[in-house]
Amino acid sequence: QVQLVESGGGLVQPGGSLRLSCAASGSIFSIHRMGWYRQAPGKQRELVAVISSGSTNYADSVKGRFTISSAKNTVALQMSSLKPEDTAVYYCNLVAQVLDSTKLIIPGTRDYWGQGTQVTVSP
Q1: Distance (Å) of CA 77 to CA 11, 42, 46, 104, 116
Q2: What is the CA radius of gyration of the chain?
Q3: Residue 82: its pLDDT value, please?
Q4: What confidence score (pLDDT) does residue 9 get?
Q5: Cβ atoms 71, 61 nearer than 8 A
Q6: For residue 106, what is the DSSP state?
Q7: Number of Cα atoms under 13 Å in the Cβ half of residue 2
Q8: Chain centre to alpha carbon of residue 41
């Protein structure tokens, strides 16, 4: 079992900042990638930022404003210069190799999602 716990969402004015955090726990053998996605009302879920072995990738819409970082089994998203169009539910994502109940490594990688945290940017 793998769990992702997110924190840090909320209401902020345009131009403000927020920091999202996500902690992964459970039967994780190795982490391949962690990241953040978001879904606004009526829209598809989209990538915001991902980090893998220290390399990062950002959506064009957030480059220069958002910064993703990771440490051990956590990933954070520092969001600055927020805009109303950043309003969405933000989801933490983990791609990892995991262990079964007997502590053996399950071949391949598994994909996990957090429960989502609301970010609202409004005057």
Answers
A1: 16, 23, 15, 32, 13
A2: 15
A3: 98
A4: 93
A5: no
A6: P
A7: 26
A8: 18
* Whole-number Å distance between alpha carbons of 67 and 56: 9
- pLDDT tens over the chain, length 123 residues: 899 999 999 999 999 999 999 999 999 999 999 999 999 999 999 999 999 998 999 999 999 999 999 998 999 999 999 999 999 999 999 999 999 999 999 999 999 999 999 999 999
Q: Which residues of 21-44 are buried (b: 16+ CB within 10 A; e: fewer)?
A: bbbbeebbeebebbbbbbeeeeee
Instruction: Find out whether 32 and 95 touch, Cβ atoms under 8 Å.
Output: yes
Coil vs helix vs strand at 37 = strand
The C-alpha angle with vertex 77 and arms to 107 and 55, in degrees rounded to 5, equals: 55
